[in-house]
Specification:
Helix content: 40-55%
Structural class: alpha/beta
Low-confidence stretches: none
CATH architecture of the largest domain: 3-Layer(aba) Sandwich
Order of helices and strands: EHEHHHHHEHEHHEHHEE
Number of helices: 11
Distance between the termini: 36 Å
CATH topology of the largest domain: Rossmann fold
Oligomer: single chain
Length: 266
């Protein structure tokens, strides 16, 4: 995709490690991290404004009713295809520098094109369930997460840009993806000054806040921004900083978010 040559792409099913890999590589190299999960509700609001039947059905049903939906309704409500184009629109609206690392289940070879700098992380059904069950605890993985693995595999098809992560640790997966992207990252541009790094870190952190506040506005959700704690990246701007901060949504500051003992780097 000629207009998005400044984007590095990571696709694959839920549980494959896309978000962790994308966040850590982007932070290490001064790239803008586009986390598709953090755009879920803005995409759903966009689809609602366009009168999308699947989006409207999703909003009408309770979580239990959605979980019991048939495959056709589940696919329609997922906005899987529609969110692919929305992701492209989001990326086109962002600054072209620094490089963007975009990750999401809706990223497909058709969207990226044959010449895009991309990798799809794949895993077996057994590994996916094990990883998602660890993530979601006693409630287990949402049925839609498991169901869409086959759809995503079919979309990937025989594209050679694939990394099987079944037998890889997270650190090994990150190292492998970093190696795949190494030449493109080295060519840049990346965020080099502390101020540039603070801007892209603020972008990623603010999207997380906006995402959860949009979720809390749904009629079927419960929660309080004052007690809903999420993990954010320190915004000191120091290239070597990897600190993360647990913070209630309501306490997210207007000024740079700093880990204890950290100062704004100049």
């Amino acid at each position: 995709m000629d207009s998005l040559k400044h984007v590095l792409w990571i696709g694959g099913p839920s549980g494959s490690g896309k978000t962790t890999v994308g966040r850590r590589i982007a932070r290490r190299h001064g790239l803008r991290w586009y986390n598709s999960d953090a755009h879920t509700w803005s995409h759903r609001d966009r689809a609602l404004s366009q009168g999308h039947p699947g989006a409207e059905l999703f909003e009408r049903l309770s979580p239990a009713e959605r979980a019991a939906a048939g495959p056709a309704d589940m696919l329609a409500m997922s906005l899987h295809v529609e969110r692919g184009q929305m992701t492209v629109d989001d990326l086109r609206a962002l600054p072209a520098t620094p490089l963007i690392l975009a990750e999401g289940t809706q990223i497909t070879p058709e969207i990226v094109g044959p010449d895009g700098c991309a990798i799809w992380l794949t895993l077996s059904a057994e590994q996916q369930r094990e990883r998602l069950d660890r993530r979601h605890g006693a409630e287990g993985a949402p049925p839609s997460y498991l169901a869409f693995r086959k759809i995503i595999e079919a979309e990937i098809g025989d594209d050679p840009r694939v990394l099987d992560v079944d037998d890889l640790t997270m650190d090994e997966t990150i190292a492998a993806v970093e190696g795949i992207f190494a030449e493109r990252i080295a060519a840049g541009p990346s965020a080099t000054t502390p101020a540039e790094r603070r801007e892209i870190l603020r972008y990623a952190n603010q999207i997380i806040v906006d995402q959860h506040l949009a979720w809390l506005r749904r009629w079927w959700t419960t929660g309080d921004p004052a007690t809903m704690v999420r993990t954010f990246d320190c915004e000191c701007g120091q290239p070597s900083c990897g600190a993360r901060i647990d913070l209630a949504l309501a306490d997210f500051p207007a000024e740079p978010l700093l880990a204890p003992g950290h100062q704004i780097s100049t």
